Automatic annotation (TrEMBL), chain A:
<dbReference type="GO" id="GO:0051603">
    <property type="term" value="P:proteolysis involved in protein catabolic process"/>
</dbReference>
<dbReference type="Pfam" id="PF00227">
    <property type="entry name" value="Proteasome"/>
</dbReference>
<dbReference type="GO" id="GO:0005737">
    <property type="term" value="C:cytoplasm"/>
</dbReference>
<dbReference type="InterPro" id="IPR029055">
    <property type="entry name" value="Ntn_hydrolases_N"/>
</dbReference>
<dbReference type="InterPro" id="IPR001353">
    <property type="entry name" value="Proteasome_sua/b"/>
</dbReference>
<protein>
    <recommendedName>
        <fullName>Proteasome subunit beta type-1</fullName>
    </recommendedName>
</protein>
<keyword id="KW-0539">Nucleus</keyword>
<keyword id="KW-0647">Proteasome</keyword>
<comment type="subunit">
    <text>The 26S proteasome consists of a 20S proteasome core and two 19S regulatory subunits. The 20S proteasome core is composed of 28 subunits that are arranged in four stacked rings, resulting in a barrel-shaped structure. The two end rings are each formed by seven alpha subunits, and the two central rings are each formed by seven beta subunits. The catalytic chamber with the active sites is on the inside of the barrel.</text>
</comment>
UniProtKB/TrEMBL annotation, chain B:
<protein>
    <recommendedName>
        <fullName>Proteasome subunit beta</fullName>
    </recommendedName>
</protein>
<dbReference type="InterPro" id="IPR016295">
    <property type="entry name" value="Proteasome_beta4"/>
</dbReference>
<dbReference type="InterPro" id="IPR023333">
    <property type="entry name" value="Proteasome_suB-type"/>
</dbReference>
<dbReference type="GO" id="GO:0005737">
    <property type="term" value="C:cytoplasm"/>
</dbReference>
<dbReference type="InterPro" id="IPR001353">
    <property type="entry name" value="Proteasome_sua/b"/>
</dbReference>
<keyword id="KW-0647">Proteasome</keyword>
<comment type="similarity">
    <text>Belongs to the peptidase T1B family.</text>
</comment>
<dbReference type="GO" id="GO:0051603">
    <property type="term" value="P:proteolysis involved in protein catabolic process"/>
</dbReference>
<keyword id="KW-0963">Cytoplasm</keyword>
Amino acid sequence: MALLSENSGRSLPDYETQAAKMKSFSPYADNGGSVIALAGDDFCVIAADTRLSTGFSIYTREQQKLFPLSSKTILGCSGCWCDTLTLTRLLTARMQMYEHEHQKEMPTLAVAQMLSTMLYYKRFFPYYVSNILGGLDEDGKGCVYSYDPIGHCEVTKYRAGGSAGALLQPLLDNQIGYKNQEGVEPVALTQEKAVAIIKDVFTSAAERDIYTGDSINIKIITKDGVQDSTFELRKD
Amino acid sequence: MALLNKADWHTPAPFWQNGPAPGAFYHFPGGSTHVDTGGFQRSQAPITTGTSVVGIQFKDGVLIAADILGSYGSLARFRNLERVMKVNDNIILGAGGDYADYQCLKSNIERKILEEECLDDGLSLKPKALHCWLTRVMYNRRSHFDPFWNNFIIGGLEGDKVFLGTVDKLGTAYSDPVIATGYGAYMATPILRKAYEENKDMTKDQAIELLYKVMQVLFYRDARSFPKYQLGIITREGGVEIQGPLTLDSYWGPAII
């Protein structure tokens, strides 16, 4: 200890290398990715792109960012991938503990609250992940929960998050929320419309955001189960 | 102190000249403003390093290649450092980055394998399990701000499935049929991806030839590379084989004036 603090000016010139001076360590990385979730009356659609990247290089073009937590709940993550891995692993473990303790699957509302608590637990060294949780509530209605990295939670009907969140959200506001439209009668969202809008907005986002692209994975949650599909985006 | 500037939360800069640091007492002019908070410095930079590691899947196996140079900053200090290892009969591992950190993890892994063999139950570690374990180890260290400064590529066979995955110093992990780390990520990945897209069922010989070409490209442009490399091969029939050091041909004719 004393030795180290005396040498904090690093008085070992013979052993100094270029590499030793250059690099500084950051525990976070921005691995990009975007997630969208839309809730309907009896379904929830959640989609995420499959590009994992950092800076100007693409790690892989086929990384799943949707995590099915239960038969009625799916989590979409984007941001720092190492934090995503850790968070989801911890989350599934705690959901298993819940299931063993209560002899039932964890309802979406409970998952949503637990996720918020788990994120805030790391308030001063946060998981750098933007989470969107989609699922069916206990009445079978679609619901979407969105989070900030330190655990703020909000229930909504539609939400976009991740690197292209700011590009996607205004489009959803207009097309799903009927914002800034005049003389339009809002109609209930259908599965077909939801999927079509998701494909359109992701195609647009892939044009402008380099961290979003390659393809998207779409999961539709209904009372009968989860339907899975993919859709190709531009790969450059 | 200069080394502590980046993430030094314990001794923030004073608000004004000779003034107290936030949460500290006032220091009169002439007095020392140095406050020893008892913090200490973790290893924050790689010292002896290995450069890129490249890996590719082929029809019935995986290849991992890495050269055998240990760089000390810009000095090519160790010219025979082997950094592709056989883990067990179905896993191979390649490492880039700090060599001391690699050696530390290598001995850990070897101990794990030995303990497992002592059980003598016929079960052996699977590549996905090692990949996952490495993810946790690396993430744990980065969370203590004391990272293992490495990039790992794990290749192996899991039943009939071929596996190729990677972990970096943060614990960022993914698996892909084509992986390259370091400068290889910029120079080797495009070549490997193109070759893989055109022929997903490469034979072992085609894959070996491809990696030879890629190592050659890296040797030409990566200033921390070396014309000798090791090749880790794992196939369904042949098991694990670590070849090398193999020598790369290069032509520097135009460079000589």
